[in-house]
Design a protein that fits this description.
Blueprint: H1 5-19, E1 23-27, H2 33-44, E2 71-78, E3 96-97, H3 106-125, E4 129-132, H4 140-146, E5 151-152, E6 158-159, E7 167-174, H5 193-197, H6 215-221, H7 231-234, E8 237-239, H8 243-246, H9 266-269, H10 273-277, H11 281-287, H12 297-310, H13 318-325, H14 333-346, H15 348-361, H16 365-373
Parallel strand pairs: 3-8
Antiparallel strand pairs: 1-2, 2-7, 4-7, 5-6
Helix pairs in contact: 1-3, 12-14, 14-15, 14-16
């Protein structure tokens, strides 16, 4: 079927919105030449931490993803919360989970919708397509800005005048030649709310993130021990952090998640830290089988829970102290180390009484260090 380019774009926009996408824009794989220099500077500064995959050569050039692609269709999908996600921070015995992870895994949901739209496009206009949703070495945010869907704010996340900060990104690469949309301009102005609210001061300058200090990175991407100085700043956040997103004034235009599978599951809105600390691997896998949380695994999950319990400090009750103590003999040294640190924070007398015997049998250097340092900042 033959279409005029403008007519095809209009139909594609209508179809995308009928499927549930919030917005759609069009650009070229070659539209972001400046992004590679920005990425290189980010990597050279070491701001990527353990995320070595960000240095893959393909990430520097969208055309390298698929050299036959002539156009990129960028799409956004709303996942806005029904309330301010920072409210949970005032209830430290409960676990704070990032909004995007309280529902089902967005990768699966949005990829199905991208494929649905891609199938429609092929049937309507022919050509070939490839779809991506945070699953390829692709600089999606610069492409989205080039396609007119918003801009990268001072917190480095996407912001839209129509939809605020609560949007997922997806892309369709196609061999079809579709007219480009004008790129978005920056509308942050003098606002610095996202920078000022960051608990760990993870933004060296506006529009630049040091992931090594970012709570989302530390609780999700980082595989090892979290720096002692950063642990108290994490509070009760066990998976991600929404502070810089939630404070953005453009969220006055944000829309709540319409897709029911992206809406918060009641069990993940304010789960009890003590209950989560007692969860074994099988129960963890069952509870989070449809959630992005499953990808950090049970060990890192316990690491995060124990840090949150440690941050209760003197307010910890007997059941919370018992939950921490139960992990002192865990098979994995990462869990043991965080249990030791947490015990020093919430029950220092108990920790002091046990330290000599524990050091006599402990062989892991990091766990021994946690015992010997008395909780570091405790």
């Amino acid at each position: 079927m033959t279409h005029e380019p403008t007519d095809l774009k209009k139909k594609l926009v209508d179809q995308a919105r009928a499927i549930g996408f919030a917005d759609i824009g069009f650009t070229r794989p070659s539209a972001i030449p400046q992004a590679s220099a920005r990425l290189q500077a980010f990597l050279e500064a070491g701001f990527h931490g353990d995320m070595d995959w960000m240095a893959r050569p393909m990430r520097f050039d969208p055309q390298a993803i698929w050299d036959e692609a002539r156009s990129v269709i960028m799409l956004t999908f709303n996942y806005g919360p029904a309330h301010d996600p920072r409210e949970i921070l005032a209830t430290p015995e409960k676990a704070a989970i990032s909004v995007y992870a309280q529902g089902h895994d967005y990768h699966d949901i949005i990829k199905k919708k991208l494929k649905q739209l891609a199938r429609w496009l092929i049937a309507e206009a022919g050509g070939e397509v490839k779809v991506f949703v945070d699953t390829a070495p692709l600089m999606e945010k610069p492409l989205a800005q080039a396609a007119g869907l918003g801009w990268q704010g001072k917190h480095t996340n996407m912001v839209s005048r129509q939809h605020g900060s609560w949007t997922f990104l997806g892309s369709i690469f196609t061999t079809l030649d579709l007219d480009e949309d004008p790129p978005s301009s920056d509308h942050c102005g003098q606002c610095a709310a996202c920078l000022e609210v960051c608990p760990t001061d993870a933004f060296p300058t506006p529009y630049q993130l040091d992931a090594r200090k970012c709570i989302s990175y530390l609780t999700i991407e980082h595989k090892g021990h979290i720096d002692t100085a950063l642990r108290p700043l994490i509070g009760n956040r066990i998976y991600g952090c929404d502070d810089c997103l939630a404070v953005c004034p453009w969220n006055k235009f944000a829309q709540n998640a319409a897709e029911i599978k992206l809406q918060a599951r009641p069990a993940l809105q304010a789960p009890d830290l003590t209950a989560l600390a007692g969860m074994e691997d099988t129960a963890f896998r069952e509870m989070f089988r449809a959630s992005p949380i499953k990808r950090i695994g049970h060990v890192r999950f316990l690491r995060n829970i124990l840090i949150a319990l440690g941050n209760l400090g003197a307010k910890a009750e007997d059941d919370q102290i018992s939950a921490v103590a139960a992990r002192l003999d865990h098979a994995d040294p990462l869990v043991r180390a965080m249990a030791v640190w947490a015990l020093w924070q919430i029950a220092p007398q108990t920790a002091r009484a046990q330290s000599a015997a524990a050091l006599a049998k402990e062989t892991d250097a990091q766990v021994r260090s946690e015992w010997a340092q008395g909780g570091g900042n405790g």
